[in-house]
Design brief:
- By secondary structure, the protein is of the alpha/beta class.
- The protein has one domain: Aldolase class I (TIM Barrel), CATH 3.20.20.70.
- Helices cover 40% and strands 21% of the residues.
- It has an 8-stranded parallel β-barrel with strand order 1-4-5-8-9-10-11-12, surrounded by 9 helices. The chain has a two-stranded antiparallel sheet with strand order 6-7.
- Helix 8 links the parallel strand 10 and strand 11.
Length: 307
């Protein structure tokens, strides 16, 4: 009877699994702060994607770890970049799998910031050119959705204009519209090897105290051409997911980020929480708040449980 009258339901099709792609072959290196998640070479990512598809999971989002980094983030938009190479390989083996790509520069710059650094600060307008080039290269390699995560002003418009001008009108944009300067990104920075070498990212990521500003940022991205929007992180910002759902009639995603995952896994491994219940309760709360899409490192175990 509880199942019959349940108001909020989960489906594997609403999950997107983040994957970290690294150079080499036969590599599957566990991330210390994120148990059961790995840095994987392209051949291993292809195998992972086949399993993702078999579980009915909605798709994957790719993050790249380049062979080398430089001040111009050239590995992000090079045609032979790690994400571009992975895209083509995945497309050959699992052509029907939905593939999202993270469009940012922090993994590719030698200083770890999300854009061109000028006089010790990130230059917004120069960074837009890099982001547009990266998004276009991803679309050419086979991405279904590009997801700019940098939080530069105007990046959605720049990407949309570039994609349309090159015949990729159907490539969708999932904008990290309300991305906060959060403490919960720590484990991800180990996974993506993207820790800033100086300062922090508060000048372009949002203040966690500002909810009204988040609604403005979402509106700006939609005006510039975003097809769907994201709130990141998820659990500390359930109220903003709910507000966004009430105000904007577009698909809404939420990213259950690395720190959220690692907290739960640490408590589980210490015997303080029950694994399956903690996983499913948090995913249910994100869905209940209004997110129809959840980027989560729990995608595979949750899909198996639901199946």
């Amino acid at each position: 009877m509880r199942r019959l009258v349940r108001e909020t339901r989960l489906d594997p099709a609403q999950f997107i699994l983040p994957l970290f792609v690294c150079p080499g072959e036969g590599i599957k290196r566990e991330i210390g702060s994120m148990p059961d998640n790995y840095q994987m070479s392209v051949d291993q990512v292809v195998k992972e994607c086949a399993e993702v598809q078999s579980l009915g999971i909605g798709g994957v989002i790719l993050f790249g770890l380049p062979e080398a980094k430089d001040e111009a983030a050239s590995g992000a938009y090079g045609e032979d970049g790690i994400v571009q190479t992975a895209l083509r390989a995945i497309r050959r083996e699992t052509p029907k799998l939905l593939i999202v790509t993270d469009v940012c520069n922090c993994e590719y710059t030698s200083h770890g910031h999300c854009g061109f650094v000028k006089d010790g600060d990130v230059d917004n307008d120069t960074t837009l050119q890099w982001l547009a080039k990266t998004a276009l290269s991803h679309a050419r390699a086979g991405a279904d959705i590009v997801a700019p995560s940098d939080m530069m002003d105007g990046r959605v418009g720049a990407i949309r204009q570039t994609l349309d001008a090159n015949g990729f009108e159907k490539t969708a944009i999932l904008a990290y519209a309300a991305k906060f300067a959060s403490v919960f990104y720590g484990p991800f920075r180990e996974a993506a090897e993207s820790t800033p070498q100086f300062g922090d990212r508060r000048s372009y990521q949002m203040d966690p105290a500002n909810g009204r500003e988040a609604m403005k940022e979402i509106a700006f991205d939609l005006e510039e051409g975003a097809d769907m929007i994201m709130v990141k992180p998820a659990l500390p910002y359930l109220d903003l997911i709910c507000q966004a759902r009430e105000r904007f009639d577009v698909p809404i995603a939420a990213y259950q980020v690395s720190g959220e995952y690692s907290m739960i896994m640490a408590a589980v491994r210490n015997g303080w929480l029950e694994y399956e219940r903690a996983m499913m309760e948090t995913l249910t709360s994100i869905t209940r708040a209004g997110a129809g899409i959840i980027l989560t490192y729990f995608s595979k175990p949750a899909a198996r449980l639901l199946g």
